[in-house]
Amino acid sequence: MVTVNGSGCPADTAAVAVASDNTAFTVTYSKYLAQVGVGATPTDFRKNCQLDLRVHIPQGFTYAITEADYRGFAHLENGASGMERANYYFQGMSQTARVTHVFNGPFSDDWQSTDRADVASLVYAPCGVDHNVNVNTELRVSRGTSDPETTSFMAMDSTDGGVNTVYHVTWKQCPH
Questions:
Q1: Which helix (H) or strand (E) segment is 135 a member of?
Q2: What is the pLDDT of residues 29-72, one digit of tens each?
Q3: Among the residues of 66-156, which ranges form H helices?
Q4: Residue 32: φ, ψ to 5°
Q5: Domains held by the chain: number
Q6: Whole-prediction pTM value?
Q7: CATH, residue 152
C-alpha cells in the first residue's frame, strides 16, 4: 500500500512499482514540476511529494533504504538555480537529515542525482513490526539574477513516463 501526497504529486499523477525481488521500488511522476518566471504562479517555485509506503516485512527480517536515484529534466536560465532535496524516515522515528542537490543555470538538459547511505549510517526499520517508510522529496527553483522575462523550471516527470525515481532497499536478519 502506497499513498502519495503533495503539490508535486496530485492524485493519480504518481505510480509506484516494486521489483519482483523486493530490493527496489520505482516511482514515476507525471506532474512534478517547479518553475519561476513567465507563466508561473507565485507558489510554483516549490513543489513537494511525500511517499508513505507500507512495507510487509517477512518475519525475522528488517530493511533500510540504501540508495535513491532521482531523474528529470531542467531548464535553468543564466543566473537561476534548481534544487532537488529528499529525506527518509520510518513512521514513529525521527527524520533523517535532508540530502540536497543543486543545479545552476545556464542548464537545459536531463539531470540525475543519487543519495547513498554508507553502511554505518543505515537506519533500519524496527524488527518485528511493519512500519511505514516515509520519503519526502522537494523540487525548488530560484530566479536568482536571471532575466524576469524568461522561465526556468525543474521537473521530475516525463511526457513519455520514462523519468523514474528508484529506491534501493537492503534486507538483514533481526537478532534473535
A1: strand 132-142
A2: 999 999 999 999 999 999 999 988 777 777 788 777 888 889 99
A3: none
A4: -90, 95
A5: 1
A6: 0.84
A7: 2.60.120
